[in-house]
Amino acid sequence: MKKIYLDNAATTPIRREVIDEMVTVMQSEYGNPSSTHSIGRSAKAIIETSRKTIAKYLHCNAQEIVFTSSATEATNWILRSAVKDFGVTRIITSKVEHHATLYTILALQQEFGVQVAYVNVDCDGVLDYNKLTELLSEDCKTVVSLMHVNNETGVINDIHRIGVLCHQHKALFHCDTVQSIGKTELDLQVLPIDFLVASAHKFHGPKGVGFAFVRKSLVLQPMIFGGEQEKGWRAGTESVHQIAGMAKALELSYVHLTEERNCITELKAYCLYQLQSFFPDVIVNGKDTFYNILNVLLPFSTEKTAMILFNLDMKGIAVSRGSACQSGSIKPSHVLAEMLQEKDLAKPSLRISFSHYNTKEEIDYFVETLKEL
Ligand code: PLP
Question: DSSP assignment, residue 307?
Answer without folding.
Answer: H
